[in-house]
Amino acid sequence: MTGPAHPSLREIADRGIAFALIARDDTTVELLTGDVVDVDLLADIPLTDASGTPREVLALVPFRQVRERGFECHDDGAPLRCLIVRERTALPRDEALAQLPTEPVALQDAGFDIADEEYAGIVRRVIADEIGRGEGANFVIRRDFTAGVSTDAATAALTWFRALLEHERGAYWTFAVVTPGHVAVGASPEAHVSARDGVVTMNPISGTFRHPAGGATAETLTEFLRSTKETEELFMVVDEELKMMSAVCSDGGRITGPHLKEMSRLTHTEYVLRGRSRLDPRDILRETMFAPTVTGSPMQNACTVITRHETTPRGYYSGVAALFTPRLTLAAGEATHDLDAPILIRTAYLQDGRLRVPVGATLVRHSDPYGEVGETHGKAAGVLGAIGAVPRDAAAEAAAVAAPDADVIDEDAPAPAPRRLADDPSIAELLASRNGRLAEFWLNPQGSDGPAPFAGRSALVVDAEDRFTTMLAHQLRHLGLDVRIAPWDEVTDAQIDDAELLVSGPGPGDPRDESSPRIRRMREVVARRRESGRPILAVCLSHQILADTFGIDLAPLDAPHQGLQKSVDVFGMPASIGFYNTFTARVPAGTTSAGAAEIAADAAGDVYALRGPGFASVQGHLESILSRDGMTTLQRLVEQALTPIEG
């Protein structure tokens, strides 16, 4: 409840009360106080009291919770910390600022825990050993800026929170969470997931433009927006978050954007994804752990790669701060709470007198090692500059404020709004042009548009550890199929035999690597289904495995096709398709068949698709936002696979 009187922020800090300060707009600071409870699992977050009455809870969710999904991590035991809100107070922003300390917090022995050259070496290894071996499309590897702090933790938290309020802009949440033994203060630009009135929203942000001295201009931003690397990086994380949306939303999710996220030292590009769900918000949070913008894709393998290349635990970095607020009105079957959960990035942590600011760079096939080193410096400086730990760019702060008429000064007028580069017509046009490359299926509302061609039919999708299968299943349902998904290590031989249509899915790794239990099982799945003569559609990794059964060679590509859009000929029809492969099936140039399989290949012999009696396959991801002709091609291939075998 909000009371008419409340202790000052300084009094709360001096008493040692657990509290949180959250600014989600430009006018109000929310003060939450209450009791701290640490729990083991997301399902244990105490959203109701002993009598079943809903209550508000702010949870700090550490990265180690990915274990709930069976993913790897360095387990540091960071608690899933819950602040059970007993009192909520809305403070006017100016009143909050007046109560916050201004004296800078001194740092000692400040610097990165990993030297620049060492981090550049990690970047090279990830590109060569992980992306180059087909382990995924992109990976985020972090380093930490650390320093000693002698100021007491609560005072440091209040000081840094004030500095962020005054000097950072464009944040989704600006916050300070002070609990026993631990402080987190940040200005997160990114809402990972929210659920309000049954509408789930995700906000993938990727691509980082570091402002030059004096601030960003339309001219300097234009070069960034035209970068192939930055554009593809954003498309890849949108694909990855659509996988999550398709898992939690009945309508799969629709994307809008792109937009600019403009901050004090950095500008990012972003999309917004929305869909409807009736899931408990804790389940939504579990199914979306964690954002690909801070892990990579595909998600499960990204966690494995992070464990290989980061030698220390992440703590709360790349986790979320999740605010569960009781719904005021409820309809039948609705969840009892709304959810608002920003990603824990651009955040400073203070524990046992040590400051830690973790930052990461998204590594893709185009990455320049020293460019990624510079990106981590820029992200750290964004936090450190805002809190006054490093010098601020005063010229940039001044340039960020729009002055409508520099010759007319009205001292009584309100402060001018920050200048938005997104309002520049040339910038808006560049952003809008990106959608010309994307699939209309994901850009448009996905209501019924006529009779589904495969109504009354069913399919089983086998997931080989790439949740592109959730998007693929959504598209198959849109075509009328009743679809179930089974993980590769749980699908039974009986399920393989009984499925009306078996869709053998994509996954990371080398299709020739029979030392991998996952690859061996996917080979068994494809072989068993082919021997039965029953319909099968094989995608990406499974396409390569199917090609191998026809004696077609498998080989690594000269350069990975991770997040690459290509126009290819699929059995006489041109199709714009997104590719995420490092390996390919390859035939001599001009080859058009292998046994019973008809081959679609390029001039070099790389095989894009196979078809024959009762089977079809495709190397690309028809479900990707990069596949403008994905739905049309998918329908053609499903029709082919379901064609009865004569005789």
From TrEMBL:
Annotated ranges, domain Glutamine amidotransferase: 460-637
InterPro entries in the cross-refs: ADC_synthase, Anth_synth_I-like, Chorismate_C, Class_I_gatase-like, GATASE, TrpG/PapA_dom
Domain named Chorismate-utilising enzyme C-terminal: residues: 117-379
First-tier enzyme category under EC: lyase
CDD domains for this protein: GATase1_Anthranilate_Synthase (cd01743)
Superkingdom: Bacteria
SUPFAM superfamilies associated with the record: ADC synthase, Class I glutamine amidotransferase-like
Statement: the UniProt record of this protein carries the keyword Zinc-finger: no
Catalytic reaction equation(s): chorismate + L-glutamine = anthranilate + pyruvate + L-glutamate + H(+)
Family matches, as Pfam families: Chorismate_bind, GATase
Coiled-coil stretches: none
Enzyme Commission number(s): 4.1.3.27
UniProt keyword terms in alphabetical order: Glutamine amidotransferase, Lyase
Name listed for the protein in its UniProt record: anthranilate synthase
Originating organism: Microbacterium psychrotolerans
Lineage, highest ranks first: Bacteria, Bacillati, Actinomycetota, Actinomycetes, Micrococcales
